[in-house]
Amino acid sequence: MTEFPKTDQNRINRLPRRGYYDRETIYRILDEALICHVGFVENQQPYVIPINFARMGDAIVLHGAKASRLLKHISAGHPVCLEATLVDGLVLARSIFNHSLNFRSVVLFGTGQPVEADQDKLAVLEAITEHLIPGRWREVRLPNQKELDVTSVVSIQIDQASAKIRSGPPGDNEADYALPVWAGVLPLQELPLAPVRDELMAQAVAVPGYITKYSRKQS
Ligand SMILES: Cc1cc2nc3c(=O)[nH]c(=O)nc-3n(C[C@H](O)[C@H](O)[C@H](O)COP(=O)(O)OP(=O)(O)OC[C@H]3O[C@@H](n4cnc5c(N)ncnc54)[C@H](O)[C@@H]3O)c2cc1C
Fold it and tell me: Which atom of ligand 1 lies closest to the CA of 53?
């Protein structure tokens, strides 16, 4: 199944033409987003927590400290809502009302479960590392047993999802096009700056290509 079904929970109501339900579109956005925000309800109180993540097939994986309230909550099998957003530009219209953002965002719903076997935990940690910076995992010291034991890992099966995408120029009112106001799009992109060497590096190590060539853009 390449499309998530539209339900009362994931159907985009406002500007439905901007809605997408296919896995390819949704997963491209998730894979490019650096972090996500997870929403959950505990004792009738909603919380939203920012966190690193990775997508593994049709699941989102997270890791953190054993004491993490969020991870305990997800491990217990409670439903969660997760979002990730890429901002592509500021859309500057001739009227304030028609200002907007170009964006690609995903909202998904799922229920979690703990990942307990060491091999599975390592696979998740590799996925999260490679999601942040591909190429890093094979170069660094991997977690030892003690580090693995104090790390909690969860997997959230994606049950429902949608993407919403806005692109292109501003849409102004006909009468406003004559106004002498600059209008258009200021594109924005997440770009790395020059890497800053840790002064405590014991010996000179060349900056690896996966750092100098780092890009969030999905090819
Ligand atoms: C970019 C980014 C990536 C992160 N990646 C991870 C990760 O991979 N794994 C991980 O475990 N944690 C990560 N964190 C930290 C995460 O947001 C939580 O702070 C952390 O999980 C601690 O959870 P907790 O159970 O102690 O928090 P809780 O006990 O759930 O938090 C208690 C209260 O503290 C406040 N709070 C908690 N976190 C934050 C926050 N980030 N900013 C402001 N207030 C906060 C809130 O009011 C919250 O209700 C990340 C944070 C950021 C910003």
Answer: 8
Residue 29 DSSP SS3: helix
Separation of alpha carbons 21 and 67, rounded Å: 35
Give the H or E element holding residue 74: helix 69-75
pLDDT digits (tens, 9 = 90+) for 10-50: 898 888 888 999 999 999 999 999 999 999 999 999 999 99
CA of 78 from ligand 1 middle (Å) equals 18
- For residue range 90-100, list pLDDT tens digits in order: 999 999 999 99
pTM: 0.94
The confidence band for 101, taking pLDDT boundaries of 50, 70 and 90, is very high
Distance separating alpha carbons of residues 134 and 204, to the nearest angstrom: 22
- Domain residue ranges in the chain: 16-169
Which residue, judged by its Cα, is nearest atom 31 of ligand 1?
69
Q: How many CA atoms lie within 13 A of 108 on its CB side?
A: 30
Atom from ligand 1 closest to the CA of residue 72:
25
Residue nearest to atom 6 of ligand 1 (CA): 51
Q: Taking residues 163-187, what's their average pLDDT?
A: 97
Query: Which residue type is seen at 125?
Result: L
Nearest-atom number in ligand 1 for the CA of 49 is 17
Nearest to 158 by CA among 10, 23, 36, 59: 59
Class of the CATH domain delimited by 16-169:
mainly beta
Ligand 1: list residues with CB < 6 Å.
35, 47, 49-52, 63-65, 68-70
DSSP 186-199: EE-----------T
